[in-house]
Amino acid sequence: MSRDTQLKERWEQLVNILSNQFSQGEDLDLDAIIYLIGVQELGKVHNEFKKDEKLNLMHIAICRLLEPYGFYEFEFFDEDGWPHYKVKEELPPLKAGEQSVLMKEAIVNYFLEREVIE
Known about the structure:
Radius of gyration: 15 Å
Structural class: mainly alpha
Number of domains: 1
Helix content: 55-70%
Order of helices and strands: HHHEEH
Mean pLDDT: 93
Shape: globular
Strand content: 5-15%
Largest sheet: 2 strands, antiparallel
């Protein structure tokens, strides 16, 4: 099975699992899944978040997702329990489609580590 085919199948499996758990029948999009990862990483799953906090949650998720690729490194948790990362290497310029594939791959790997999917 090609790497692209495997990624596509795992992505669809993950979208189905998360959509069934967190959505009322609609498939979650990439941004929604990134947001969920940010909430998971923060560890405050039952909180209501303001708009700027939601953006920060997505930033946390992106940093965490791209950490294994060498782009970010975890630094510390602040007094409110929010994780902070530093940039280790700038992301290369990517086209929208390439960016999407990178994020989907990183998300699939994140959930493979947590044994949510196989």
